[in-house]
Hints:
By secondary structure, this protein is an alpha+beta fold. It is built from 11 helices and 28 strands.
Amino acid sequence: MSSEKLIIGSEEWCALNSLGVPAIKARVDSGAKTSAIHAYNIKPFTKGSQTWVSFDISPIQGDRKTVLKCEMPVADRRLVKSSNGSKERRYVVRATIGLGEHSWEIELTLTNRDSMGYRMLLGREAISGRALVDPSQSFCLRNFTSEEIQSFYQRSVKKGDNLKIGLLASNPSLYSNQRLVEAGEQMGHQIEFFNLRNCYMKLDSGTPAVFYRGGKKLNYLDAIIPRIRPAMTFYGCALIRQFESLGIFSLNSASAIAQSRDKLYSLQKLFGGEIDIPTSGFADSPQETEELIELVGGAPLIVKLLEGTQGKGVVLAETAKAAESVIGAFKSLQANFLVQEFISEAQGKDLRLFVVGNRVVTTIERSAAPGEFRANLHRGGAAKRVVPTPEEKKIAVKAAKIFNLQVAGVDMIRSDRGPLLLEVNSSPGLEGVESATQKDVAGIMIKAIEKKLRWNAK
Length: 458
């Protein structure tokens, strides 16, 4: 009986004709129960009396320019445990799979697999009774060259005028930067990455300009997307102001970024805007250490460097003695810091509400990794999609407006006295939020530029 079964390797090319996918590379994993395909922009809707789901597929790994738009009836919605232990409720669709000359119907769960090595996972339920896996082999049934794959997915070029967008950042290989470039190109625009260190300015009342290494003049740009590292805030904001003086739209303005990066000033603006924040204290002299600790309700408390980013320079002091030691260490380094009350009921979790163009487009809840606490959520914590309350959405939009930010990651925690705002980030990362929510946030940011510049596809 086993001789009648297909012999497949640890990776195989599959066809999913009912989804319009002529070829997609799948990881064959008999240890996984269910099969999954990379999908995003997942939206349920009703057709007749049945629930359907629309979604986008980018079938080629590392290529977000090739997009297939799909609609399928929903077969199920179930809780799936991933290889990293996290659980996610996914939509399930039925599709016909083609392996070599053979085909049959399987179930596929829809999930964002951008961070995985394969756009598709073929689990044991899909091959049970039909195939045997030889893990030492690959592409036992058929293999394709990159040229053949490209011929399967002939890209259509968008006609008409496009926008010329510059992405100002430091590292082109970061997920967020790659996604913005891909989203811009996918929507028909000319988008270029510029390392802000290699940009320079001509300050002249007659012919002001911004140049890129090699003498390329950047005055032709319609818009810029600034993704400025904290260490480059001063120069980055100066560069953005130069673009703004040339009439080039910046998705976030220089003044908005500068204000949000000053942690102390930003907290002062937030409570001035009647937004609740954790009780915080700030002083210049080490002689006020005991008073600072008392101001925030005593230990445990948070000691936070004003120049710190992504959880660095943030310490949980569980006792007054520990707090005095940390404060003393920071003072000896002549570092500016503040102390902040510790919200124990948050249980090591916070919310990030992603605001684009004065609306919350998606929200994740982040949980600290074991042994860490909420301030160090960037270090190995888990994230999942959540639905914010109307009050939380209102606070996030209001906070972004206070700084005049078109794009903002607004961090807050849920306390016994209501939502407390922690920080407003002017260059929020996209990887965590897109992976957890399967939302095309990069595309939403490009659409915000289109709306601001009143651009319409021809």
